[in-house]
Amino acid sequence: MNNAQDLSIISLVLNASLLAQAVMALLLLLSLLSWTYIFRKWFAIRRATSQTERFERDFWSGGDLQTLYQSAANSRHSIGALERIFESGMREFLKAKEKRLSDPGLVLDGARRAMRAAFQRELDVLESNLAFLASVGSVSPYIGLFGTVWGIMNAFTGLSNVQQATLASVAPGIAEALTATAIGLFAAIPAVVAYNRYSHDIDRLASRFETFVEEFTNILQRQSH
């Protein structure tokens, strides 16, 4: 029972060297931050998807574009990403119409550029913190491996003062070293899974945004004539 207690995770962390403890603390901090971003990004993507589906229903239901635009313009900070893209394009289109530009191509180019700029801003927001998850997923195993190598070095260095090396004398040091690798994997695996999943979800949203930009541009083209 005493040996089981000595080799528990908590005791291994507490009895590890200062460098190994620093590595474990860093990995736990990275894991905590990655889980925070994982949950935030999950809620953000879920909200963006819901808002996109709701606006697409309203837009393609045949409602008046001016009414949709006024609704979006009056609540710009509480609407979804796709609605902000629509609002940007519609605003530029109406400005160009007010200036009575004779060339429909200039009118459409301005609206398209405004929607593309808004599209890129919304995509940047959706992709925020994904790079951090990717970094945690790729770097954490190596940080844990560094702690493991350092712990194994210390374990074998300690054997130089022992006349007879036994498994009991080596096991605690090896277990302490492998704990760093385990914590590294604990930090890396969720980050990699979340990064891959969220990248896929954001790519699907980006595709829907791009499709809407093209379709809305066609609608504005018909109206400009």
TrEMBL record:
<keyword id="KW-0472">Membrane</keyword>
<dbReference type="GO" id="GO:0051301">
    <property type="term" value="P:cell division"/>
</dbReference>
<keyword id="KW-0812">Transmembrane</keyword>
<comment type="function">
    <text>Part of the Tol-Pal system, which plays a role in outer membrane invagination during cell division and is important for maintaining outer membrane integrity.</text>
</comment>
<dbReference type="InterPro" id="IPR014163">
    <property type="entry name" value="Tol-Pal_TolQ"/>
</dbReference>
<keyword id="KW-0997">Cell inner membrane</keyword>
<comment type="subunit">
    <text>The Tol-Pal system is composed of five core proteins: the inner membrane proteins TolA, TolQ and TolR, the periplasmic protein TolB and the outer membrane protein Pal. They form a network linking the inner and outer membranes and the peptidoglycan layer.</text>
</comment>
<dbReference type="GO" id="GO:0017038">
    <property type="term" value="P:protein import"/>
</dbReference>
<dbReference type="GO" id="GO:0005886">
    <property type="term" value="C:plasma membrane"/>
</dbReference>
<feature type="transmembrane region" description="Helical">
    <location>
        <begin position="130"/>
        <end position="153"/>
    </location>
</feature>
<feature type="domain" description="MotA/TolQ/ExbB proton channel">
    <location>
        <begin position="88"/>
        <end position="210"/>
    </location>
</feature>
<feature type="transmembrane region" description="Helical">
    <location>
        <begin position="12"/>
        <end position="38"/>
    </location>
</feature>
<protein>
    <recommendedName>
        <fullName>Tol-Pal system protein TolQ</fullName>
    </recommendedName>
</protein>
<feature type="transmembrane region" description="Helical">
    <location>
        <begin position="173"/>
        <end position="195"/>
    </location>
</feature>
<dbReference type="InterPro" id="IPR050790">
    <property type="entry name" value="ExbB/TolQ_transport"/>
</dbReference>
<dbReference type="GO" id="GO:0043213">
    <property type="term" value="P:bacteriocin transport"/>
</dbReference>
<keyword id="KW-0131">Cell cycle</keyword>
<keyword id="KW-1003">Cell membrane</keyword>
<dbReference type="Pfam" id="PF01618">
    <property type="entry name" value="MotA_ExbB"/>
</dbReference>
<dbReference type="InterPro" id="IPR002898">
    <property type="entry name" value="MotA_ExbB_proton_chnl"/>
</dbReference>
<keyword id="KW-1133">Transmembrane helix</keyword>
<comment type="similarity">
    <text>Belongs to the ExbB/TolQ family.</text>
</comment>
<keyword id="KW-0132">Cell division</keyword>
